[in-house]
Amino acid sequence: MTIATPLRRTPLHDAHVKAGARLVPFAGWEMPVLYTGVIDEHLAVRKRCGLFDVSHMGEISVRGPEALEFLQFVTCNDVSRLVPGRAQYSGLMLPNAGFVDDLLVYQLAERDYLLVVNASNSDKDFAYLQEHAARFDTEVRDDSPLWGQIALQGPRATAILGPLASSDPSALRYYGFAFLEVAGVRCLTSRTGYTGEDGYELYVPAADAERVWYALLGAGERHGLVPVGLGARDTLRLEAKMALYGNDIDDTTTPIEADLAWIVKLGKGEFIGRDVLEAQAAAGPTRKLVGFRMNGRVPARHGYPAHLHGAQVGTVTSGTYAPYLALNIGLAFLPENLWAAGSRFDVEVRGRMEPAEVVPTPFYKRER
Amino acid sequence: MEPSNLRFTKDHEWIVSKGSPARVGITDHAQEELGDIVYVELPEVGRHVRAGEAVGTIESVKAVSEVYCPVGGTVAEVNRALTDAPETVNRDPYGEGWLFALAVDTPGEVDALMTPETYGAFVKG
User: Fold this and answer.
1) B41 to chain A: which residues are within 8 Å by CB?
2) Interchain proximity B61–A297, CB inside 8 Å
3) For residue A6, is the peptide bond before it cis, meaning its omega torsion is within 30 degrees of 0?
4) What secondary structure letter does DSSP report for B34?
5) DSSP label at residue A146
6) pLDDT at A368 over 80
7) Subunit contact B61:A320, Cβ cutoff 8 A
């Protein structure tokens, strides 16, 4: 017999049902993929503001006398550059310098960190961290059930959050965070996001998530704030050229190949995968994640082959119609002769060759 | 409510029940499920297709879906306006959003498809 694993629900599940969201299974969770439509929601975030339930993300706490040394050993970015109140994008590394996951590392206090990881990898990450933590004087704890997570993203984000918050959230710098009271609830309020817009990610005690969600929706009404599902989250992140684990990066791709060399700090000392990254940095990678546009009308999709002069030279990792740019964009692993903007190649779509062209990234960059 | 002059497949295509060539499209339920349609790929005029054969592709922002031919026949005409305005399928799936017209091999095959009432019940499950 098969025993079906029930899908997990976020603390905001009832709110999504009431709002008429379309709920789909995602990484073991029942998540809203859209409320009204992907394109509408995407444009709302670019022009006004959107509210996302991202409570499926995993939260892992790392603390103890050797918490810093431990995180330096398992991640590729330099955790010693953090101070309490700052966050960092990084990679959890395998010995081959592939990604166990990509993640955010928040420094809460001295020797006290919070890792925010992908829902699909949360259990794997926790097991991997526990395994390596045995050699360090540190405690690793899965705090995912404690937290709901709400992202408020778009040019109106500060105007919406400000009046609800105990202090001015725009005092936070990009990748800065603080514990603010929002609608009377103490939230880890972070100036981060996955959309290419200004905005905040709020880590909320699970029991209070609904209260914060409705307070934000209410305060945002006159600013045109709408709830946004995972569908638009994916198109927004791709326009901003942010990697998606399982699509663009995985346990076989290194940060250097993924065009994320800026999160690789070889000078910080020993860490898992460092030898591979050092060699790759010296010799140069043979493939790199590059942004492209389709010159025809057909969208490229994950897994489509990339061809040059009839031979396969790479693979598309993400592809979609980009609602704000109104064209078909994608990311692909390509060889060095195709890295320059303007390079032309073909994407194989259902057996046909469709012309594509490398373009500068991010595809979309907000005006500041 | 589905127009009474159409017949329906369980794959959510419709075909005009009388006359040939008969227009073919996807149902309101199908366009709703797909969401924002951004690309429509139609068959070549003159191609002969069997019932249930993949005859076109519709892509929403998120997904790629195949369109299956409701009955056997020869493609007589395609709706070229959809190339520039694929969202027409969302807006008017039973009207301007038709996909192609089929010279039907055997009219009896059309009669065997679901009526609007049967399809309505099928969608409600």
Assistant:
1) 298, 350
2) no
3) no
4) H
5) G
6) no
7) yes
pLDDT tens digit string along A110-159? 999 999 999 999 999 999 999 999 999 999 999 999 999 999 999 999 99
As assigned by CATH, the class of the A286-358 domain is mainly beta
Contacts of B56 in chain A (CB under 8 A): none
- Residue numbers in chain B where pLDDT is lower than 50: none
pLDDT digits 0-9 by tens, A126-137 = 999 999 999 999
- Cα(B30)–Cα(B123) distance, integer angstroms: 10
Q: Which domains, from first to last, does chain B contain? A: 6-105 (2.40.50.100)
Domains of chain A, residue spans: 1-280, 286-358
B62 and A33 within 8 Å at the Cβ level: the answer is yes
Inspect the interface and report whether the beta carbons of A37 and B57 lie closer than 8 Å.
no
Give the gap in angstroms from C-alpha B57 to the nearest C-alpha of chain A: 10
Is residue A222 over pLDDT 70? yes
Contact A104, A62 (CB under 8 A): no
Could you tell me which of A241, A245, A250 has the C-alpha nearest to residue A290?
Answer: A241
pLDDT for the residue numbered A2: 59
- Is residue A210 over pLDDT 60? yes
DSSP letters spanning A262-293: GG--GGG---TTHHHHHHHHHH--SEEEEEEE
The residue count of chain B comes to 125
**Fold of the CATH domain A1-280:** Gyrase A; domain 2 (3.30.1360)
A24: nearest CA partner in chain B: B33
